[in-house]
Each structure stands twice: as structure tokens, then as C-alpha cells.
Amino acid sequence: MKLLVLLVFLVGSISVDARTAELRPLTMGLPFHVNRVKAIQQYQDFLTGTLAQAGFKVTVQTSQGRLISQMLVDGELDAIMYDDKSWTEGRNKTVSVSFPIIRTRARVFYLSDHKKFSEEKLKKFKGGFSTNNIVLNKEASRRKLKYINTSSPLQSVVDLLGGKIDYFVAIQEVGLSVVDSHPEAKGRVVMGKTVFHEVPVYLTFARKFEPDLSRIEEAFRKALTGDLSKYPLIMENLNKEP
Questions:
Q1: Where in the sequence is the signal peptide annotated (predicted)?
Q2: CB-based contacts of 137: which residues, under 8 Å, 6+ apart?
Q3: What's residue 18's pLDDT?
């Protein structure tokens, strides 16, 4: 009996190892480390878990402030987890899923004790926008706002607390997560009431993955219409009708 149990265990282990070995490597780009940003960590977990179901073992590579879209076009990455469809150069070298993975809203964050600040009069103040949020940078330029680029939402919080900027704009869930993760920001940095910009986010791959796209989309349709309770910070905005 013990021998039978041992054999079953060994066969099961071999099967699991075989399935793992069959996963194809895929390097996915991320603009910055997300250890302290729980919302992005949940989004990353959702993507990597779903891509595993599609047959890929994901390795995440941070861009250290570089544009992940350019790294993808240059062949340094296999995929990027954040594509707001705002860039065009080199787009012919990529393929994207046909539906957004998540629909996000960007909002303004500012210091609660900045009594003169008004999110309705952003032109009077200096803002901060993460470099890789291309669509938000374009919107800021369209509105002719005064702003600087930051390497990450966490850097935006640091710059706000340090007085370099009067506000920053970030995806709602991301902004709330970075504020919550920074001990000096809690209770001091608040989120504005109006939506700065709507941002649907797609998953984009190097063109060599085009033959795999239908299988990838099938995996995401199944995941997005399934149980999303493991991702409470982003569940509301995940695209449940892909």
C-alpha cells in the first residue's frame, strides 16, 4: 500500500514538473518595482497567472525609468503589461489582445493641507506624471499643464511631499496604493473627486507571438469572466465583458 502511494506521488510530481517544463519563457516589462504598490502587484499576479494558463512562464523585468514600449519595439522584451494605445512608433512590430484587460481612471492626488489647491484650476499648479503613462502625459500637454515626469507613482508621492510638485496624476488604484504604502503620505495625500482621464489598458506582445494570440485571448476571456476575488483592489475595473 505504501509503495502504491509513493508511486502515485512520484507520477503526480513528474506530471507537474512536465507541465512546468512545457511553459515557454516570456519576459514582460514593467516600468518600476511594485513591492509596495499592492494594486499593481495584484494586476501583475493576474497577468502572470493567466499567461501560465496559456502556456507561458513569465519573468518580470523593470525598465528603470525607460519607456517599456520602446524596449518592446527594440526587442528587449516579449510583452508589456501596460499599453494605453497612445504610442504609434514601432506599433507594426507588436500585436495586442483585441480587448482591454482593465479599464482604469486616472485621478489627481494632492496634499490635504494645501488650501489654495484646486483640481479645477490645474494650470495654476505644477504636476507630476509618471514617464510611462504616455496617454496621461499627452492629456497634460493637450491641456497645457505645467508638469514634470517622475520615474514611478511612488516617486510622485515623494516629490509631492518634498514640495517639488503641487499634485500628481495616477491611475486611481495605483495612486491609493502608493499613498497607503508611504507612512508620511497617509492622511496627508488625498485623491480628487473628478476623473482626470479614462484609460483602457491592453496587453501587448512582440509580433513573434502573433500565432499564440488566440490562445492567449481565450485564457484571458476565461479568467476575466471567472472568480476575481483574489484581486480585490482591481476587481471592479477588470474587464468582465471581454
A1: 1-18
A2: 129, 131, 147, 149
A3: 39
Q: 2-102+201-237 has which fold? A: D-Maltodextrin-Binding Protein; domain 2 (3.40.190)
pLDDT tens by residue, 23-78? 999 999 987 766 767 888 999 999 999 999 999 999 999 887 788 999 999 999 99
* 39 in Cβ contact with 233 (< 8 Å): yes
Residues in the chain: 242
CATH node for 104-198: 3.40.190.10
* Cβ-contact 170, 107 below 8 angstroms: yes
